[in-house]
Design a protein that fits this description.
53% of the residues lie in helices and 10% in strands. With 593 residues, the chain is an alpha+beta fold.
Amino acid sequence: MRLSDLTKYAEEKYQIKENFGLTNSPNYTVLVHPQSQRWIALLIREYDKDGNLIEKCDLRKRNSFSINIFDCWRNSPYIMKESGWLGFDLNSTDTKELFNRFDDVIEAENEKIKSIIELILTSKSIIVDDTNIDITDDDKSNWKVIKEMQQLYRSDYAFILDIFIKFDYEKYNIQHLFESKNFYIQGKFMENYTDDIPLKKCKSLKTNYPTYRDMNALQLRQYFSWRTKIRRGTFVKISAPYARVYIFELLNSIGTRSIEDALNQLIVFNDNYVNTSFGSLGLQANMTQWILGFIIVNNLPREIALKYAPMQWAIDCLLNSDIQNDNAILLALETLIEKEFTSIVIKKNGLIGIHFFCEIWRKCFNNIREIIFGKIVTMYFEPLPNVPYWSQEMKDKSVYHLTESCQYYCIDGRWEQKSYNFGYDKQDQLKYFIHAVDLKLRYYFNTGTFLKERKSDLNYFPFIDEAIEIIKEDLKPKIDINFSSLNKIRKDSDETRDNLLTEEDMIDETIKPSGIQDDREFVVFVLKSLLNGENANDIIKSKYLIPSVIADKINEMFIDEIGDSIVECDGTSLSIIEDYREDIVNILRLNRN
């Protein structure tokens, strides 16, 4: 027989389609039970050394199978090495035998689902007479959610039972039943519940992403007491797993008036709890991802979504750098490399330095676009990972346009993201480009400190050199000078100067030194004043000197000893760069000795 016979049989009889996306190998496909979501069969297609196709199948065993020694040897699984699997070579397997065994597995899975449902429905007798019933280990995990809720809300038996009989068992598989819809229904039941017991240290939970069934009665009461305080605007610390339960409630619109109100409460909790000392780094990362996913799933405004998708915002900004200002481009570059710009080019030249970095990006963009970003690809996207999310309005198809280069699509409940895959390799390429730009600009601005050339710089040098030449040309003043008017300008300037000078100024002018008599001595005097927290402006002004000129002279005199600027000037006053305070003190002490 052929694997195509089995797949046709599974689809026609059980509406089970062959799944091509659950394994890492293109040679393997899977048949999955539609309700339990467990693998039923692994289909194997391989080629021998002569290029002939060999088809095999690993099939899950029914628990009641009784396999003799010969059968165990003959049916040893090929890939699924667990004890619950059997292997079949389709070249030597009877079609009817394999179909019968496949039917047995489906029947066993159906029985398992039925037994769990019956366990829930028969809980009424336990609620009424409160007797202990022995249950098997397999049933304990399913029983726990019933028993704990009974212990906590024993006073309202009818409503508790109602929680567990409202499930749409035919539509939802086991995992979805217990983790999503179960959480939603129980959460809506306790939506307006308040409590007020002391928030003692709660016993740690076994999972980082819990639901109500992971807590015992005391933990649930403490959680609801903490939630009561949060809803009243009092933010009190609790361990991260409990905080995630509250976030899960908001993501399911539990305790909110609308989808928009749920988003607003998520943002408030994010700002006042998660992004404070209360929130761990893991919780902060989760929250950013979940808020973005919530916005996408519910088609909320993209302007809000971009605040929680910094990488996509940065990519979009750089793709459209021709309409962005310098500050936006600089922030986008810092976002993508996950590091603040600290180049000496910017420290020394301020806005001019920033402009050169950003303008070089604009000029080079068409040449480096594919190197930095690659091509747009389609990837699997999970909007709310690890969240027991359940919506009463399931959307079969949905499209969300976040940016020009990033869109999200949902088809039959499966989300995909179409965008640039900006991973570590692309981040490295952007860092290489920035390093090459920094190296070139240090020479252009003659900063005094230079970077070591790397092999990776060579890929970008031609584009950067061309960009710098264009920028230099663009910055040249386009002014026509009328030389015949120069004499009049000089004459008017002299008259204006004479009118502004007072008699005292004229006297000072006659004794004003033409320059610094002893550069080193004056520089040391200024530095000592700055180190002592004194204002050096009066000293500089008394010498009729310009603060920025003095700053350049000081930095030039100490560049060989420190290798960087040690003072900076904002145009009117000087200040010590604190990183080099200790170095300056040591140098002055040595010179004194």
